[in-house]
C-alpha cells in the first residue's frame, strides 16, 4: 500500500486510489459520486484508500459525471454599499450559511446592481455554473429572473414574495401582519398623529409594510424611503417640516428608525414623550439606539432554514410540501415607544 503512494509526490489520482483499494477505476468513481451500486466491502476499501492518499475529487470532472456543481448562488441585486451596511443582509447570509452546514453545497455571493452587472449575472447563472439560486432583495424590474432560471434548469427560491401574484417559490416574513401590530400598538398608546416611513415601493416587502400600516391608520402621513438610515433621517426631516404635530412614527426598518430617532432628537423633541418610534427587523441596531428601539421581530434564522430546505428539495427533484412559506412576526416593546 505504501509503494503506490510513493510513486508520486503530486496530487493523488483516481487510478492510484483504485490500485491501492484493489478495485477498478469505475468502482472508485461510483463511490466518489455517491452511487449506491457498490458493495459495502468495496466502498470501505475505496474510502480507506482515499483517506490514506488524501485524495480530493476533481470537481470539474465530477460535474461532467453527475451534472452537478455542488454550488448555489445567493443573488443580491443591490449596491455593495447597502449590502455591507444594512444588518438584514448579514443576518440572512449567516442564517443560510448555517442551514447549509450539513450539506455538500458551497454558496457563492453575487452582488449586481447595474444593468451590465445583471446581464453578466444572468449569463453566468444560465450557463449552469451553479445548481440553484437564492434570490434576495429583488425589485420590480427583476421579477422575471426566477422564471428565466427555472426555464434553464437552475432551481430558484426567492427571499420574499414577488410584487405580483404567481407560482413563485419563496420564503417571507409576515410583513403586513407585523406592520399591523406596530401601528395598532401606537394607537393603543394613545398616539393621534401616526406617520410611517416606508421601504421601496417597487418591492413587495415595502408594499406589505405600508399596507399593514394603512390597515390600521387610514390617513396618516407617508414618507417613502429605501430602508437605509440616511433615507430614514431624510424622511423624518420631511415629516417634521410638513407635519410638525406628528407624535408617532412607524419606520419599516430598524436602520430607518435609527435615522428618524436622530432627527427627532436634533429637533429638540423627546422620544417617546413627544414622538414614539417603532422599527421593523429587531436587528442589533434596536438594542443600541438611545432610547432602545421598539420594533417588529423578523425570524431571519428560520427564514434561512426554510430557504435551504426548499432549495434542497428542488435540487433533489422533489416537490416541496409548501412552495410559499410565510413566517410569523411579533412586536418587541422597548423604550422608544
TrEMBL record:
Recorded coiled-coil stretches: none
Keyword check for DNA-binding: yes
GO molecular function: DNA-binding transcription factor activity; transcription cis-regulatory region binding
SMART domains associated with the record: HTH_LACI
PROSITE patterns: HTH_LACI_2
InterPro entries: HTH_LacI, LacI/GalR-like_sensor, Lambda_DNA-bd_dom_sf, Peripla_BP_I
Pfam families assigned to the protein according to its UniProt record, in alphabetical order: LacI, Peripla_BP_3
Keywords on record: DNA-binding, Transcription, Transcription regulation
Domain HTH lacI-type residues, every copy: 12-66
UniProt keyword Transcription, yes or no: yes
PANTHER family referenced in this protein's UniProt entry, alphabetically: HTH-TYPE TRANSCRIPTIONAL REGULATOR GALS, LACI-RELATED TRANSCRIPTIONAL REPRESSOR
Name listed for the protein in its UniProt record: LacI family transcriptional regulator
Annotated source species: Planosporangium flavigriseum
